[in-house]
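User
Here is a favour to ask of a fellow structure person. I am asking you to supply a protein in sequence and structure-token form. Please set it down just below, with no commentary around it:

Assistant
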Amino acid sequence: RSINEIAMMNIEYLGINKSQFLNHVLKFEFKLRGFRLAGTNIQDLSPLIVYTQLDHLDISEFDNIRDLKTLKNQSLMTLSMNNCKSFRSFAGITDLNVKRIYANNSPLKELVSLGGSKVEKLDMRDSELIQLKGLSQCPFLIDLDVRWSKKLKDVSELESSAVETLWIQGPNESKFLETVRKMKKLKWSDIIK
């Protein structure tokens, strides 16, 4: 179908895998609730502000996104950003209402830039995390998944975090057991050797 034909439809969920179509799509004011832009490699997310009902955004496999400063969608609840190789910071996240982030295979080394956010669930499996520095500054983060983050060495901030559900699996999890035992708010944990 042509972009004009699509524009006439009442679409709530749209996926685009070629960045050349994005400019055409942005000309129309869809009432999108979900938008999958995986692999389109746009650099500026600010044009997405026209989607005032956007609940879920998938920008996985973006090679140009370094942070979230240009993302301004207040309705956004879920952000998928798996395999974003240039991503360096969650800067801009505190201005949003995002509750769930999926950032598997992320190059981030720590979580300081997530501090003060409204994020409740963070899934960073297979990430480059070295430490969980900044976790104690995330008062709403109750569900954390860092399975197979093989470089993770320091989880000391778990003890003072709000995390209730924790997933750790990989080569270093046995080293983290003492800290996990001290977690006052932990309700459920999956630590597998």
